[in-house]
Design a protein that fits this description.
This protein is of the alpha/beta class and 325 residues long. It is built from 11 helices and 11 strands. The protein folds into 2 domains: 5-141 and 262-307, Rossmann fold (3-Layer(aba) Sandwich), CATH 3.40.50; 143-258, 3-Layer(aba) Sandwich (Rossmann fold), CATH 3.40.50.460. Helices cover 41% and strands 18% of the residues. A 7-stranded mixed beta sheet has the order 3-2-1-4-5-10-11, sandwiched between helices. A 4-stranded parallel beta sheet has the order 7-8-6-9, with helices on both faces. Helix 5 packs across helix 6 (178-187). Bound molecules: 6-O-phosphono-beta-D-fructofuranose (F6P).
Length: 325
């Protein structure tokens, strides 16, 4: 099929590097003679018709910007068949004949359903700080968020040391522990409490039995947000009640993790994936997410990327445990 016009949107939680991806998709499409339309506020813009033609200059000077110039939203209407029908009508009206969706799990789930209902060519790009998409070693925004966590924890360590305190620092990740585990290694934290191993062991009891950190007076524990871990607040309460000898404090890093200028790694990843998305469409690929495995671009069917849980690398657990003595 000859492609004439590609629509591009960002959806779900924003992540640093989304703009670099928007730039890459736009420029790669124009380079290949394909027209580009920017769709605002994710799937919502498809329904309301907030759509604008994009030229190369629309994406100038954005590679370094956090957030997304296309704005983003979590759209309830797109979850209904009526909403998706309106979105499809709008695309036909706009002459958009294929779509690139930049987002996480929820956004690609929407893309998969839409693509199969309307037999519409869609390629996904994994943009989420959570790094929780199967079939790709990393996602756009994850590296920047990890660096933000590292810098924040470095600062908290200063005050933790001065006061001989135990800090529980909660990081994002939805139901995945990648940010917590790698954030803990990068910041030299004593432990990470993550949902992936919560059913195997009582991670907090283990920490307490080991006396947190025998050789030091202060300790930092990174906690992945999730009902499964109980979050930083829950764990801190438990320690306060059971072990009043510890001077415990909690920091929830929150949305600071989603902002900021993307790292070089995220900009490069976004640029490669953006170009790959257009190449995939030109190769007649449909319903795939662009992934990266061992530094090679791969196409991952939506079904695989969404439905499988991405496993954590157990070697990393060992690194953290061994080095935090
Ligand atoms: O998926 C990205 C993410 O930042 C998660 O880590 C977090 O659980 C969620 O989005 C927060 O969403 P919101 O900004 O809508 O509160």
């Amino acid at each position: 099929m000859e492609l004439k016009c590609v629509g591009i949107l960002t959806s779900g939680g924003d992540s640093p590097g989304m703009n670099a991806a928007v730039r890459a998709v736009t420029r790669a499409a124009i380079f290949n003679g394909i027209e580009v339309k920017g769709i605002y506020r994710g799937y919502k813009g498809l329904i309301t018709g907030e759509i604008k033609p994009f030229k190369t200059e629309n994406v100038s000077n954005i590679i370094q910007q956090g957030g997304t110039i296309l704005k983003t939203a979590r759209c309830m209407e797109f979850m209904t068949i009526e909403g998706r029908k309106t979105a499809h009508d709008r695309m036909v009206q706009e002459g958009i004949d294929c779509l690139v969706v930049i987002g996480g799990d929820g956004s690609l789930t929407g893309a998969r359903i839409f693509a199969s209902e309307f037999n519409f060519p869609i390629v996904g790009i994994p943009g989420t700080i959570d790094n929780d998409l199967y079939g790709t070693d990393t996602t756009i925004g994850y590296d920047t968020a990890l660096n933000t966590i590292m810098e924040a924890v470095d600062k908290i360590r200063d005050t933790a040391n001065s006061h001989d305190r135990l800090f529980f620092i909660e990081v994002m990740g939805r139901d995945a522990g990648f940010l917590a585990l790698n954030g803990a290694i990068a910041s030299g934290a004593e432990a990470a409490i993550i949902p992936e191993i919560a059913t195997e062991q009582d991670q907090l009891a283990e920490l307490i039995e080991n006396g947190f950190r025998k050789s030091k007076n202060s300790s930092i524990v990174l906690v992945a947000e999730s009902d499964i871990t109980g979050g930083a607040m829950g764990l801190a309460e438990r320690v306060k009640n059971e072990y009043p000898q510890y001077d415990v404090r909690v920091t929830i890093l929150g949305h600071i993790q989603r902002g900021g200028s993307p790292t070089a790694n995220d900009r490069i990843l976004a640029s490669r994936m953006g170009l790959a998305a257009i190449e995939a469409l030109l190769e007649d690929q449909r319903n795939v997410m662009i992934g990266i495995q061992n530094d090679q671009i791969v196409y991952v069917p939506f079904n695989k990327a969404i439905k499988n849980d991405k496993p954590i690398n157990r070697e990393l657990l060992n690194v953290l445990r061994t080095l935090s003595i």
